[in-house]
Design brief:
Distance between the termini: 40 Å
Helix content: over 70%
Order of helices and strands: HHHHHHHHHHHHH
Number of helices: 13
Largest sheet: none
Oligomer: single chain
Structural class: mainly alpha
Number of strands: 0
Length: 340
Amino acid sequence: MSAISSSIKKSNNARGVILALAGGTLWGFSGSCAQLVFTNYVVDPLWVVAIRISLAGVFMMLLGIAVDRKAVLAPMSTLRGAIRVIVFAIFGLALTQFTYLMAINSSNAGTATTLQYVGPVLVMVAVCARDHHAPAKREVIAVVCVMIGVFLLATNGDPTQLVLTPDGLFWGLMAAVAMLFYTLLPEPLLARYSNISVLAWAMAIGGVGMAIWQHPWTDVPALDAAGWIALIGGLTVLGTVVAFGCYFGAINSIGPSRTSMLASVEVVSATAFAALWLGTSFTPMDLLGLVFVMSTVFLLAKKGNSSTSALPSDAPGNAPASVSPSSALPSDSSPEQHSD
């Protein structure tokens, strides 16, 4: 019996690892799909946000209903819960999507994703301030690493020049700030409801809000088949619905912390797809900056007493163990995430 149990455990572990890596890779791929759309077509990032979260909201709501209809309806069963979902949908999910896509539009998928991963450090600082305690030694090191990483990405190591455009730097850091809101705003919701129900409602409400504001059906850009495939197939279906499905499946198999850590492969995949598929060039200093920023994920995900322990989801991968910003959603008190 123990042999069978061990075999099942190993199988679940392997499945979880594969799903987490797949989810992170798809999030990175979706960033490159967005870069392709912005580079080759005249498209308003707000229009892309409206289309992405509207369609993803429909898919996620249908998925949630198929999995557990009663659980999906729960977040909206009280006035307080409904208000919190609406606030999260606007200032968490929609803002994160908008700033991230603006960062890609102003730079490239790899750089935008790397800068967004400054978010976990901001979350750590915010939690320290909120809970009135000093950061642990490794958290101080994480702050230093992220400052060095951003400096290298912005200047290539030369303080007299700015190689990253001001807009690219601004929107990348704004995406990190948005991730802070995205991680902390849903804490009360995730303490009571499943991540998929919170995410489904946030996407649905955010999508409806963006649709009412943008009227995406009135000013459709001239996209050819490749553009629509990248937008709908890559950015929305694979990069949102399938990626989240993989991520949540991984959480069920290996837990939130390991899942979020493995899903941080998003930064590597976004950079790789941008370089190998889209031909974006990265200097050695860019890659070194990426390494410094990504090191913070591992520093903040270490177990032990620290400010990150107050974060949702065990300390999510991205937010010490949170998700991808580009698509991410922190998890429950035990699910987390991405990030994306």
